[in-house]
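dumping these here so i dont lose them again. two proteins, back to back, each one seq then structure tokens. dont judge the mess
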Amino acid sequence: MNKSIRSAIYALVLAGFVLGGCSNNAHEAHNGETAHEEQHHTASGDLQEQTASLAEFPSFLVEASPTIRTAYAVAASLTDTLPYIPCYCGCGESAGHRSNHNCFIAEIKEDGTVVWDDHGTRCGVCMEIAVKTAAMKESGIELERIRQIIDDTYKEGYAKPTLTELPPSA
């Protein structure tokens, strides 16, 4: 996909965010489905599901909106970036997340298996940060600057940030 199309997609996704934060209705998007064998709930109530790779999305995204599915695709494409980007929705304290990456992906195991987290399916702040990060990276902004922009943008009026490792110096 060329750069201008990808940037347009990021802009459309970003424009579609109407959520201001995380919903307390943690499982409303699951339509009462029963958990699959590879799914489990964390202590914070998030649903996690394991798939074979980043190319295979979790079943909890099947009924999700295009905006949510796009945010997860963005997160899957930014595994080298989002671990250095904090989240400002409060998930550091409520769910133990260490970065915006954890709102979508709890873990990528050595064998490539991915443990997805459904936290991002119901949190506009999480999705917004991921998509803004992707748009900045796509436009050529370096990781250290992206981190600074995200911190400056969300430092007031949002929850306490996750305790996120700083990006390595370029």
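---- next one ----
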Amino acid sequence: MKGTIAFQGWNIVGLSTLIIGAMVAVIWLFYGIDEQAMRMAIRATARTSCILFLSAFVASALRRIWSNSFTAWLLKNRRYLGISMAVSHTYHAIALIGLWFATSGLTPKFDPGGTFGYLLLIAMTITSFQRPAALIGQRAWKILHTIGMHFFWLAFTLEFSLRIQQSMLIYLPLVILLVLAIMLRLVAPRMQRKFAS
């Protein structure tokens, strides 16, 4: 556990950038720069984004219920896990742009929900830094990040639920984790009050 705790902060973002970037590079190296490879990169980065998102999404709730070194580490590094998710979704955007070029503009079609999601992600990433966060104020920061986190939870849950038929082995566990995550966030405050009393 000591090694896990020592690995924190921007090291998380750096390693996430390298690992996900290497993953995308390997896909393109072995499968070429074509439609199939772009779709594979899109699916892969969606999954890495989901895992990183879940780590940040449940950090506070887990800490409320289980007070140990791991949940302390998770909560302390929630910001960096969120930024790592933004990095992963940047690779996702690059693959989407690549798909557009590979299909001569046929896909992907304009997606208002996806565009709104990226605007939210940009705003959340910018306000993860101290000065921009101070400029918008604590209340606005909380509203933005609460809306953003729940938007991404809903987006991942809907998208992966629709893909369960394609690959139950991959998408069903992710959907289960997403459902457990929202349940944990809902019950954590009540459980904390129960333990406190």
